[in-house]
Design brief:
The protein is an alpha+beta fold and about 170 residues long. The protein has 4 helices and 7 strands; from the N terminus they run βααβββαβαββ. It has a 7-stranded mixed β-sheet with strand order 1-2-3-4-5-7-6, with helices on both faces. The protein starts with a strand and ends in a 10-residue tail after the last strand.
Length: about 170
């Protein structure tokens, strides 16, 4: 397995496949309908514009096994050192260390980019994702009760955070 930076031309389709599988089969994404390929251009552009990485794990043949990224937590300027991340692994490669590998690289990049807090919004019933985040040092910092409605039921959203030692010299403004 190799860790790479995903690029739009090569990875839009595989990322979309992973996301759409999560949309239709799980509560990992509070979305109802699969996304079309036309959504990936703006998605990658938003990542580029924000300076946000998209880290992937590929096998020796170049097949994308999973990815992790982060983006804006909230749009107000005082949140500039906080990001919200996402991590998804292809259904055929879960439990093989892919998520850990991409998240470790994403956490390192967050530090290099002078982020201070990484936030993960996880369905409260997703015990595997919660345990995964806890193994990486994330701590539960809150629950939004009945934040979503999918598959005919209310969903609680758990928030997990990892506090980084960066930035060394935070500034207002």
């Amino acid at each position: 397995m190799n860790i790479i930076h995903c690029i739009e031309d090569h990875h839009s389709g595989p990322i979309l496949e992973i996301l759409n599988e999560a949309i239709v089969t799980s509560t990992a994404l509070y979305d109802y309908h699969p996304r079309g390929i036309e959504t990936m251009g703006p998605w990658f552009e938003a990542k580029r514009a924000g300076g946000f990485p998209v880290v992937g794990a590929v096998d020796d043949a170049g097949q994308l096994l999973g990815f992790a990224t982060y983006g804006t937590f909230r749009v107000f300027p005082a949140y500039k050192y906080t990001v919200e991340h996402s991590v998804y692994v292809h259904r055929d490669h879960r439990g093989q260390g892919v998520g850990t590998a991409v998240m470790k690289r994403l956490i390192a990049l967050a530090g290099e980019h002078q982020q201070h807090v990484m936030v993960g919004a996880i369905d409260a019933a997703n015990a595997a994702s919660i345990a995964f985040h806890e193994r990486l040092g994330f701590a539960r910092c809150g629950v939004v009760r009945q934040a979503g409605f999918k598959f005919g039921r209310w969903l609680d959203l758990s928030l997990y955070q990892l506090v980084l030692a960066t930035p060394g010299q935070p500034v207002d403004g």
